Amino acid sequence: MVLKSNLKNHSIAIEQSQNQDFFEILYNLYYQKLYLFAFSYTSSKEDAEEIVHDVFLKLWKKQDELSSISNLTGYIYKMTRNGCLDFLRAKKNILAIESNMLQQQNLLNLHALSDDPSSAIIEKELEAQIIREINKLPEKCRMVFIKSRLEGLQHKEIAHDMKISTKTIENHISKALKKIKGLL
């Protein structure tokens, strides 16, 4: 009886050793090819490695069924392709969710900025501050800025009205914008 038990345990150990050897051969034979195959789908080293490792883990769990598979190479490649497709579907769903959340956030921000009465108050305060800063400008500079920015006159028209060159107009506008931006 003890002899039968020892023989049974010995045959199980031999079978496990053979399975490990077979699996190690499979791994050495297919890993690099499957990695490159998965990388062609994912374009990510880490993702491709993870997919291939998952494939080998599934193969290890199904090692009893491997002997009944007639085309092992095709089966392994199909598992890898399916793993890649599952990964890409999951990634697509995550990106869609993130995109949708970002769109909703932007929409909320837009509504908050456009519909909020405080936005109108801030806008009015900013406008009043800009007018105060315009009024602090030297007289000629202020006149040129008002004619250009508020009345919408062209530089040539302002130059003709004020009897100064267009280059002077450009200098006054530049000076006014610098002071207003600096003070705000």
Q: Could you give a short description of this structure?
A:
The chain is an all-alpha fold and 184 residues long. It has helices at 2-42, 45-61, 72-115, 117-136, 139-150, 155-162, 166-183.
Walk me through what this model shows.
Helix content is 87%, strand content 0%. It is built from seven helices and no strands. Helix 1 runs antiparallel to helix 2 (45-61) and helix 2 crosses helix 3 (72-115). The radius of gyration is 38 Å and the shape is rod-shaped.
The helix fraction, in percent, is: over 70%
Strand fraction equals: under 5%
Which structural category fits the helices and strands?
A: mainly alpha
**Radius of gyration using CA atoms only:** 38 Å
Contiguous runs where pLDDT drops below 50 for at least 5 residues: 1-16
Number of strands: 0
C-alpha termini separation: 97 Å
What would the principal axes of the Cα set say about the shape?
rod-shaped
Largest sheet: none
Could you report the average pLDDT, rounded to the nearest whole number? 80
> Helices and strands, in N-to-C order?
HHHHHHH
Helix count equals: 7
